[in-house]
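Entry 14. Structure prediction run on the chain below.
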Amino acid sequence: MASSARKRRWFTICAITASAALCAVPAGAASGGKPSPFGPRAMDRLAHQRTASHGNFTAQVAGDDDGNESDEIAEGADQFAEARTAPGVVSPGAYGAAWSSLNGLRRAGGSWKNITDLPYDSDDPRYRDFDSNSSGGSGTVTGRMAAMAADNDGYVYAGSAGGGVWRSRTGGGHWAPISDKLPTQSTGALALDGAGRLWLGTGEATTNADSYLGSGVYVLAGPHHGTFSQRGRVGGNELESTTIHQLRFGGGRVWAATSEGVWSHSTSRLSGAWKLEYAPNPDYLPGHAKAHDPEAAYKNITNDIAIDAKDPSRVVLAVGWRSGDDYNGFYAKKDGSWQRLTTGLGDLPSDPDTVGEVTFAASADGSRYYAIDQSPKQLENNPDSSLEGIYVSKSGSPFGPWTKTADYRQLAASGSALTDPGYMPGVQAWYNQFLAVDPGHADHVYAGLEEVYESQDGGARWSTVGPYWNFGFTCWNIDPAEQTGDCNPTTHSDQHGVAIGRYHGKAYVYVGNDGGAYRRPVQGSQDADGHATDWTSLNDGTIDTLQYYSVGIGKDLDHGGVSVTGGLQDNGQSELRSNDKVMGSNFGGDGTDTITDPANGCNIAQAYVYLQIQVTQNCAVNDGSWEDDPANATSYSVAPPDNLTGEARFVAPMAADGKDSSTWVAGGRHVWVQTHGYAIRSSAEWSSAFDLGEGHTATAVASSGGKVYAAWCGPCDSKDFTRGIAVGNADGTGWHQVALPVDGSVPNRYLSGFAIDPANADHAYLTVNGFSRQWTEGPGAGVGHVFETKDGGSTWQDISGNFPDIPADAAVVLPGGGLAVATDLGVVYRGHRTTRWERLGSLPAVAVLQLRIGPDDKLYAATHGRGIYTMSVRGLR
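Output returned:
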């Protein structure tokens, strides 16, 4: 980040585990852990642009952070992974064993009901306050799509980051999930073969804050009607605990570019082991001498495979870690062994410093090959972009010669919304990449980075058909009566997947990004600026892959019932009123934790990253008139001081007191308290109740009747990991660090949440993330996931019992006295005065990051990939 207060070292952390395991690889991390500063983050950048355009309004952006979305993704990766891996490396099989154990529990409770399975309008005209990105042009959205596939019969398949694979029979829309029976819902690649079978490579390969490892490759022989099952897994367990970037076909084999080398398998005989074709550093693979080295996660990363259509025995491998390593480069077989290509490629780089994340695409007639290359050197040294270029091989051979057709400056001049230094096309080329060629026109190509680009002449000229957003364009207007003014709808930003298919005989291009799935005709139209005029959002509400960090519930005083809100990865804050047919977005950017007034659901505090908190008392309903009169703003920035110094975590904890909704507690290095509730208007209204100590940062806070519990870590990474608990009062008295015994009764792992007994503040529960000593190969990892205190935190007892060995994320005490615990694979429950844990309802293998009891006495679960679910807890004791 640009300010020295925000520059941090990115530690190498990747959970080497099975099934739904997390794989968070920091963006700026190279083998030496070097940081890579980047330019303005979306919401802050918008605020600055608006300030410049409207001098009478001062946007309240906390701290001296100038944005830096790439760095924030990196830090999110770091910290999301720390919770599950520190203080050591997690061995393969941990999530697989946890999934089996969870399924072996007795079932309790009724059925979960998804309440966010309706359209979510990121441009909802009700919410045009200055903290919202509404009017940007993305339309209806859902969670991140990692891969797309489509056929010529109108069937479209969307593979989400954490919510599984979905099918549409109508050219997009009217979706249904088809992978819920699998032990992972993380998609890395989707591909249809020549026989019409759908191949799924699990384990998202974007290496961002919330990417999960997979459990291998699966095949669905009849994708028009069937669903994926574990019986459809290809080969053995060779590809468990990997991410899969691409699946390619040639010569009767399927090739997989994974985080542990390139593998291949017969496409006709699906049993039998996968063949390891090439791993640049095999000593670092699981089961080998250096498997647990901190560098292991980076040493065998592969990105794509290019197969010569004229001779399938001629194959080029794109190999390399995005931040650079000696092994980065292009490889081909010579004399029976894989060797680096160093000559004959033309403009396509061969130096390890300039070959990073790579994507290939071939034309259907074999006359063209295209490639995108992200440069480690640019990533480290160029604040504007990490894109090395887009290339074409007009021979149709992946061996070239290749000609460079575009760099980031050319793309910026093609109608891009990213023209400011510090955030230009390809700034996140390590995270955003796709390529596709029109099957009917070899010179018609689509490229995805942060935006969508199109060329109809083999790359000589490009148009930004899907700009990042419409802000900054002369056509834009915030006036809700004009929606987005004269601007055309665009796609959500940050592109990941692409496919071309036909519906009712018409060809469409389908793109997947951080906002879901979109389409437009292949023979589409553009305006004078090169922006497409015909994008359609396919996020119609029948598909819910929203990635929530939090959930808040309050009474809807205007319509009856309750209002439900929650913070989302790259999709702001959703607002669902009781009479809504369409959800709206009342805050923009990344939404993290949430405080909502149970008595009034329009009293909301939403945290962006690092405790940058915005508060509203009218659900942030606004007609955009603050543009002309700043007094009409209805949301306010009230960040605690640790936001200024960078001493809060990316997703930092905050909570209202269980007995006094006007008393809030938030955690960074300090435990911050404010007593003005939703009427707070200034950062100065926070006071420090306790200093957790230099280098310590809060991971969980809770308060009831003025008694406060705060958990912390610091250092929080695997090296010298330390954690602790502090207890005191909201008025600043009685604070002390709890002397956690060295015998491991509270393990030396990430402390993720507290749940306080509403009847007795000295009675509380603690959840612990990560895995037990059985799987975590670090010092003092300990056992147990749920602990109880009856003396105000002085002593803690392990009550885990038969609780599955699975990361525990949060807990809540139910009205009947039972305890519900959110985990990385669902919700677990223990009744009042019992010791046995049961599985609460049945959810797919998706992480639940927060639980809340609403004023309607229902339980609400914020899942990170399948939206928000609710369940009646009547009868649960």
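The chain has six helices and 57 strands.
Filed with the rest of this week's runs.
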